[in-house]
Amino acid sequence: MKATSGIPTIARNKTTAGVVKTADVVIPEKLYFRIGEVAELCRLPAYVLRFWETEFPQLKPVKSSTGQRMYRHKDVESVLRIKQLLYEEGFTIAGARQHLRMENKGEKGQTPLPFPERSASDLKHIRQGLREILGILSARR
Q1: Fewer beta carbons within 10 Å, N or C terminal of the chain?
Q2: Which residues are registered as beta bridge partners of 34?
Q3: In a domain, 130, yes or no
Q4: Domain carrying residue 63
Q5: How far is the C-alpha of 52 from the C-alpha of 114, rounded, in Å?
Q6: Is residue 124 part of a domain?
Q7: Measuring CA to CA, which residue among 30, 42, 77, 41 is closest to residue 58?
Q8: CATH (domain of 103)
Q9: Would you say residue 47 lies in a domain?
Q10: How far apart are CA 139 and CA 141, in angstroms?
């Protein structure tokens, strides 16, 4: 588990055996997991997972045609993150929900394009060139 400024985070490292290791938990590379598999992986009872589905909007496993909950890989990672916040970092459910909401907002933020810095003289030179082009185009009319 990585620790940044004393706060543990879930580290996601790829391994060559077709599994992903998240903190101490090894998540197999599968498309879907049944609730029992997730409960075993995360060391939580299934009823806790069902309760968390009602409390955390980002935890939405799809249901199969038979009504079985099918967790995706990102759902399992969310369960591990929620468990970390509640059990290790001492958040309340409301606090963890708010913290996850803030984390998700930070991830959705669009990074600005890296425009190179231009000096004032460079910009004046570019502006002058554009004026010359405009003059040439205006003269053709």
Answers
A1: C
A2: 70
A3: no
A4: 2-109
A5: 40
A6: no
A7: 77
A8: 1.10.1660.10
A9: yes
A10: 6
What are 125's two structure tokens? 């030179």
CB atoms within 10 A of CB 118: 11
Side chain identity, residue 72: R
Tokens (6 digits) for 61? 């496993």
131 domain-assigned: no
- Per the DSSP assignment, residues forming a β-bridge with 70 are 34, 62
Token pair of 55 as six digits: 């409390």
In DSSP notation, 30-50 reads -S-EEHHHHHHHHT--HHHHH
Backbone angles phi, psi at 9, to 5 degrees: -125, 160
Q: Determine the pLDDT at residue 19.
A: 53
Predicted confidence (pLDDT) per residue in 24-57, tens digit: 778 888 899 999 999 999 999 999 999 999 999 9
pTM of the model: 0.61
Structural contact between residues 22 and 12, judged by C-beta atoms closer than 8 angstroms: yes
Count of structural domains within the chain: 1
